[in-house]
Amino acid sequence: MRLLIATHNHGKVREYRQLLYGLPHQLLSLDDVGIVDDVPETGHTYAENALLKARAYAQQSGLLTLADDSGLEVDALNGAPGRQSWPQLVRRERPSAQPQQAQEESHAHQRGIGPDLHS
């Protein structure tokens, strides 16, 4: 069975392959199935955004789809900056970054593998 992982981030796909090792699924990324569109993250929670992405990409691909959403929440800031934290940081530091590029760079930066946003 083929399972679409709703990301262009190859590191995230690699992590899911490790997590789901041994299950009878072929894991595919958005790049693998030729999807380039971003799904607007208009939900009010991480779960709502993940569901929006999973439904949209499942409809586009015809595949069972797994999506997630995350952000940085700081207790001392009452949960801010929240679910839009990383893409906002990239757009502020690199205004020319496109939304998908900003999201992917922010994910890479979180893992310490992307460009230094302050250089």
Give a verbal description of the structure:
- This protein has 119 residues and is an alpha/beta fold.
- The chain folds into two domains: 1-69, Maf protein (Alpha-Beta Complex), CATH 3.90.950; 70-119, no CATH class.
- 39% of the residues lie in helices and 13% in strands.
- The chain contains four helices and five strands.
- It has helices spanning 10-19, 46-61, 85-93, 99-110; strands at 2-5, 26-29, 64-66, 72-73, 81-82.
- It has a three-stranded parallel β-sheet with strand order 2-1-3.
- Helix 3 (85-93) crosses helix 4 (99-110).
- Residues 109-119 have low confidence and may be disordered.
CATH topology of the largest domain: Maf protein
State the helicity in percent bands. 25-40%
Name the structural class: alpha/beta
Strand count, sense and closure of the main sheet?
Answer: 3 strands, parallel
CATH architecture of the largest domain: Alpha-Beta Complex
Report strand %.
5-15%
State the name of the first-level CATH class of the largest domain. Alpha Beta
Uncertain stretches: 109-119
In DSSP terms, counting alpha (H) and pi (I) runs of 4 or more, how many helices? Answer: 4
* Helix-strand pattern: EHEHEEEHH
Total number of distinct structural domains: 2
The oligomeric state is: single chain
| Anisotropy-based shape | globular
Which value, in Å, is the CA radius of gyration?
A: 15 Å
Q: If strands are numbered along the chain, what order do they take across the biggest sheet? A: 2-1-3
Strand count: 5
Distance between the termini: 43 Å
Mean pLDDT: 78
